[in-house]
Amino acid sequence: MPETVVYATDLHGEIRSYEKLLEIGNGKNVRAVIIGGDVSPFLTVMGDMALYQREFYEYYMLPKLKEFKKKTGKDVFVMMGNDDLKINLEILKKGEKEGNFRLINQKAYKIGSKYVAGYSYVNETPFLIKDWEKSEENIRKDLDRLAKLSDPKKTMYVMHAPPLNTSLDVVYNRSHVGSSAIMKFILEKQPYLTLHGHIHESSQMSGNWKDVIGKTLSINPGKGSILVFDLNDLRTMELLVK
Q: Is residue 8 a contact partner of residue 241, using CB atoms and an 8 Å limit?
């Protein structure tokens, strides 16, 4: 029997995308739902973005995930991304404490015969929000520690930033902006699977939403698209485009 995993990233508070994700997550044989960063809305006009994001968590996301967990009993894994203000992390920790989901940044959890581990930080960007940015050197140190929490060969790593110089990190001007530390980590550790996001347009620019690095399959589904796959057979992978 397949153990289906449903993954999405860069939902940016879009309720329609959340509803679709959880609808698919409620399907037969689904073992887990993974939300890989940039979970909250981004305020594009003058205002208090921390409050804007906090209200999204309190009045939509947390109640919705609580309802989903109660109804289905399925595992839900969540982490913030570079557009999610860290000041609101305590709200997500409250939801985790209530048992509605697990926060996976710099943690690893068993899921069937595999593990899922998360990493929210991205390499430095020109953007104003710096809560989830680190230097490549510090990203490398973090990933070395993360690799000790589970066997990389049996682990799905959810890393918000994509690896450098791949099909997964191409921006509109066709330059590559991914993380060299993440690329090096994948080359050296050859994990079971890596799941990324951050660069919304990469698959449109490169023509590919997946890449193979050594023997590792790496994926960036793009903003709001939904990846569905069997935990034990990655050949079943399907991308449901937004």
A: no
CA distance 214 to 242: 29
Q: Residue 185 contacts by C-beta under 8 Å, 6 or more apart in sequence?
A: 140, 143, 144, 147
Question: What gap in Å lies between CA 235 and CA 86, rounded to an integer?
Answer: 36
Question: Which 3 state secondary structure label does DSSP give 93?
Answer: helix
In this prediction, residue 209 carries a pLDDT of: 97
Tell me the one-letter amino acid at 121. Y
Main-chain phi, psi angles of 228, to 5 degrees: -125, 130
Structural domain boundaries in the chain: 4-240
What type of residue is 195?
L
Q: Cα separation of 137 and 134, whole Å?
A: 8
**Mean predicted confidence (pLDDT) in 29-54:** 90
- Altogether, the residues listed in the chain come to a count of 242
- For residue 129, name the pLDDT band (cuts at 50, 70, 90): confident
What is the fold of 4-240? Purple Acid Phosphatase; chain A, domain 2 (3.60.21)
* Count of other CB atoms within 10 angstroms of residue 181: 25
Does residue 57 surpass a pLDDT of 90?
A: yes
- DSSP count for the chain of H helices, then E strands: 7, 14
Residue type, 230: D
- The rounded distance, in Å, linking the Cα atoms of 98 and 89 is 14
